[in-house]
Amino acid sequence: MIGAEPVIEKHRWLSPVWLLPVIALLLAGGFLYQQWTNSGQLIRINFAQGNGILPGKTQLRYQGVAIGVVQELELAEDGRKIAVLAKVDSRARPLIRKGSDFWLVSPKASLTEISGLDTLVSGNYINLQPGRDNNPLENEFDALDGPPPGYLAQGRTLHLTSDSLGSVGIGAKIYFRGLEVGSVINTRLGEENQNVILDLVIEPRFENLIKTDTRFWNISGIKGSFSLSGVKVEAGSLTSILSGGIAFDSPKESDVAEKGQTFVLYKGLAEAARGERIQIQAGSLPIKEGIPILFEGIEIGRIDPIRLTEQGRVVTALINPEQAFRVTGKSRLVWETVSLSPTGLKHADRLLAGPAIRLDYVAGDRVNAMTLESQAQTTGIKISLQADDLAGLSEEAPVWFKGLQIGQVGPLTLDAAGNARVELSVNEAYRHLLNRARFYRASPLQIDASLAGIKVDTSPASAWLGGGVKLIQAPAGERIDRLYPSQELALLGTRNAKPQRWLLRAEQADGVGIGSPVLYLGLEAGRVKALKADAKGVEIELEIDAVYAPLLKQQPQFWKKAAIDGKVRLDGVQVKVGNLATLLRGAIEFDRLGTGRSSHQLFDSKEQARTQVRTLTLTADNNPGLGVGSPIRYRGVDIGKVEQVELDPALGQVSFKAELDKQYADRFLQSGARFTLVQAKLGLGGVSHLDTLIKGVFIEASPGQGASKERFPLSQSGPIGLALTLKSPSVSGISIGSPLLFRKLVVGSVTQVALARDGSEVLIDVNVDKQYAHLVRANSRFWNVSGVKADIGLTGGTIEVETVQSLLAGGIAFNTPEREMGPTVKSGHSYPLYGKAEKDWLEWSPRIQP
């Protein structure tokens, strides 16, 4: 364009394109700064050993949170320690300052402490406790062997001083009245190493127990001393014995101690001189300093140094503050020392330990003064017991209830009629035990053995020497003032029991005669009054003494006590010999064995009597030869026997009372069970069970399935299969036992042959064995094959004999047609019995599936 003016544009000195590299540079710088801040920092921790520390795995933790991880392990500069290099997260860097403590946490188990169990899953780790907030940052530290003193401790911290540490160490428990209230968190030497200082922590809820006048004493381990005044033994709890322990008191009148107060640790309670003091009126008894005061054999106090004043001796005792509540107006202090009594040496344990004072505690109001008695008072509730004899008893013998002495035996007397009486004195505090009380002799050792186990009852040692009386409360009824020979008799006892007559039966009375003793637990409880023989065996009449008569209600078992009991075993010969009376007269023993066996049968031994059985009754129209003792068997093994055979007037039958061993009984006392007589059979048809001619008949049992049942008929034939009735004009050689044949194979037998009531025909009952019952169908044919069938003519003849057995004993054969055999039949079905078979019957050859 001619005459146009040029346009002039000014270029900017910096193009916007340059903003892109600037932004990229800033992003890269931010990324580098973030990487630098998050990279963490390496610190060095010197450990005594590196066991359990793994590079890349072992974490550094604070308050349970991981703040770093171990990078590598190397030898420290001094060559004696292991330097652990750990990288700490940058956010946790302020925690790593001077004064910080590091230690390795690993599983630890001891008798008093189990810790670090979480490391079983996560592995060992290094724990951190930061230093003070104003401390500078630090990069190198020396690790501790364990947590620093007071780590995680919550509560009040205080200090104890002692001449020596003894058996108390870090972790030892602090007890108040047996309750754990704190622990020792640190032990260290005091100034100039002249004493030991223990740092304790008391749980917050128990801080108020620490008073200005509180005293602490050592209860660690077992402490003992021996002197002329006796043997002194002090022991704390099992934990304190193993790891140490400290106890303290808390005087009520004292103010709460200030924080940080230091106390003295005494060697024991006596040195601490803590407890409640009481004054004792000792009279002329030779009481001395240090004599212990015992409650149920446990020391609860000691006699203080004895002071002399113008009024005479002043005796005080220091009582353990935890047991001071037992010092009441009703409690008594009794002097105990070695003495001779009718039972022998009394308090023999005091011969070595020296005299002691026994506290008989009875609840009541607290007192601060008591009188020391020279011997236990006999005051209390007086009871007079009737006794059969006084042998084995002595005055001052104890009266026991559940192992606790509640009284003692008083005078033993005989009245004008010669009746023995025992006077008892029972402490007033136990009056409530007398409402349903029964009393029996405290035998030194009583063993009760049964199928349920063995129960052993022993009396205290004093009863072994001088006898004693035990008290037991009956479940119901009132108190009976009679001294019984045993606990069982005491529970069963009645006021006016009389001797009781009891009858036993036995196959024979060998070893037993008139006057033979009847024993219960070795005590003579009666005697044999009469013997009488009859057709069933021997009837033995017993007279059981009145005190033992209640035992008969428990249906006990009786057995003969052998004069000489001998057993031959692989390891030798064992022989037991009874006393002279048993050797001369024999004896009978009885006890309740819980077997369910008859209480009117005399067994030959205790082993036979204790066999557990169950009873059943078998019935039959007559006795086929069974007697008492006839066995009941299953597959040739004896499982029971007949115990009694009698006529049942109501049923007009013979009843056989039998017993089955309990371990077998359940299967046979059910519906469907069968009991079959097995006896020898001699006949033209064969011979079976000849052994019964020598051993006697027996009963074969078959188990059942169904409801429980205890009464069964006695079957005199084999197991029933399919029972049929055949009708014939005459017997024609058929008799009971004649075989039933199918293809000349015996598949059953004739069980009964009888004339019909109207006399029109003969009814023959047959039994088809169960496994062949399916061969009989509605159209089956039965014919007589007894004897010999002959057909003789001018042109010749034939003679037919089915089997040798049918020739001798008669027999019946049957067959079923191949076609139209008909349905199966049930027991009771009847068929005609033909004289002979038709020709086509013999040609039938059926295939019949069960």
TrEMBL record:
<keyword id="KW-1133">Transmembrane helix</keyword>
<dbReference type="Pfam" id="PF02470">
    <property type="entry name" value="MlaD"/>
</dbReference>
<keyword id="KW-0997">Cell inner membrane</keyword>
<dbReference type="GO" id="GO:0005886">
    <property type="term" value="C:plasma membrane"/>
</dbReference>
<feature type="domain" description="Mce/MlaD">
    <location>
        <begin position="504"/>
        <end position="555"/>
    </location>
</feature>
<protein>
    <submittedName>
        <fullName>Mammalian cell entry protein</fullName>
    </submittedName>
</protein>
<feature type="domain" description="Mce/MlaD">
    <location>
        <begin position="155"/>
        <end position="218"/>
    </location>
</feature>
<keyword id="KW-1003">Cell membrane</keyword>
<feature type="transmembrane region" description="Helical">
    <location>
        <begin position="12"/>
        <end position="33"/>
    </location>
</feature>
<feature type="domain" description="Mce/MlaD">
    <location>
        <begin position="380"/>
        <end position="450"/>
    </location>
</feature>
<keyword id="KW-0812">Transmembrane</keyword>
<dbReference type="InterPro" id="IPR003399">
    <property type="entry name" value="Mce/MlaD"/>
</dbReference>
<feature type="domain" description="Mce/MlaD">
    <location>
        <begin position="614"/>
        <end position="684"/>
    </location>
</feature>
<keyword id="KW-0472">Membrane</keyword>
<dbReference type="InterPro" id="IPR051800">
    <property type="entry name" value="PqiA-PqiB_transport"/>
</dbReference>
<feature type="domain" description="Mce/MlaD">
    <location>
        <begin position="724"/>
        <end position="781"/>
    </location>
</feature>
<feature type="domain" description="Mce/MlaD">
    <location>
        <begin position="40"/>
        <end position="131"/>
    </location>
</feature>
